[in-house]
Amino acid sequence: MRGLKIFSLGFFSYLTLSLYANYFDEGLRNTIYSRGLEPSVLLLGTVYALAFFAVFSLGYVLNLRLPSSLLAVLFLLLSFQNFPVFSLLAVLVLIVYRLGINPFRLFPQSALLVALLIPSALYIVVGVPLLENSLRYELVGSLVLAAVLAVVGMAYSTLSLRWKTFLVGVYTVLFFLGTFRSLVLLVYLAYFLGTYFDYPQFRKWLLGLSLIPALIIVGMSGGIEAVLVRIGFTFLVFHNLVRLSLPWGFFHGALLFSSNPRGMVASLFGASTNYTYFFFGQPVADFGILGVIEAFLLGTFLGNSEGNRGSFVVVLSLMIYSLDPGVDAFIMLFIVATLLFSVSEGNIT
Length: 349
Hints:
It contains 18 helices and no strands. It is mainly α.
């Protein structure tokens, strides 16, 4: 139950902050509603968030063992989010899997290195988003890839804690320059979870050390109020997606396979930017009440990930990270790939 407990802590903390911002602080509420979304009572969104979480938890508790054949099919289907590039890469990955090669185990240091090189090269060749804000969304896909590779490297690498701490500091600087606070959080999640499992003697310090990424994120956001506005607005977007998507969904799978799902959600409400939509926003928006099937599957993913420490750190980190921006095909690809390559390994958690 360890994975569900940790995820629940993040989930209910996020939900509590979102309800506080929307209900109990008039100044925050006015700022959130000023963007033009329906400012109706958020009970509907809250009920659906709790209902989907209950189904998610059921999937975790039942922990049905997903066969490698099903994971391979899911991996191939998700790759059509970016056809034909991702699809060709998915075929290559499945060939590697059939050959019995586990790249997660063999190349974690390479993943850490590539995660450093991607943003560094982009900042040199294209520019730095912190200095040119117009570059922010131009580089977002590559920066997310770099952050996910950093998570994989952190989870599977046998580097010492000292080296991992140094790398986390470097990644913090790189993603700070990219202006994406959520990517800073993602890297710290993998670092803290890995430290929690590998170094029990340091567990008592982790709560205090978590203030470091918290202060960084607050600083990048422009203050605590800005963080609460972001969280509150994200949940308001989720509420409106629920309102528009009942009973059978609005996008019918198009959101999951979109190359820019957050831009797609924003355009639904007449905006030209990107809107984050909460962890269960995509299942609801795509499939309505049938989105509980995807919620159950996500819970099963988390349960299956506990087969070994590396997959557990990767999957749990990606799911907690997705609480705010929401689930998309790219994140799901890495979750399914992690499970696929861990399915033949013994339980060493």
